[in-house]
Amino acid sequence: xxxxxxxxxNIRTAVANDLARVIELDERDTGQGKPxxxxxxxxxxVDGDRGQRYFLVAEQNGxxxxxxxxxIRAWEFGSTPSGWVFAINVSPDIREQGIxxxxxxxxxxxxxxxxxxxxxxxxxxxxxxxxxxxRSQGLSAGPYIQLEMHLDE
Length: 153
Hints:
Helices cover about 30% and strands about 25% of the residues. It is an alpha+beta fold. The protein is globular, with a radius of gyration of 16 Å.
């Protein structure tokens, strides 16, 4: 037990049968249904040759309660190999119980196991939940600056 109120969390690699629950968790969190997006991610990160791609889920009492997705990348403007986290989600019903931290620690272990010593992510300035979470994990501004330009339609 993690504490008196939380059942044991099992962090494991995602399998094809987890897709529906991942779609459900994401839609509940974002308010947007993106089944095609998640099917594509599962094709590349779960069903296909994973390479240095990681899709982990947190399971509690046989139910997926959260997930994290990332990969090793090294091609952006000469950067050294780094672990990138591009999705993390925990069911709102059980947030603030350390599950996201367990997922983050697990994916960082995956990165370390292939000799990567840096983890990065990119989040919206208007996303205080994720900004606060990643800062609590020790992430801070890195050496790169995200730039963008809106394209006229």
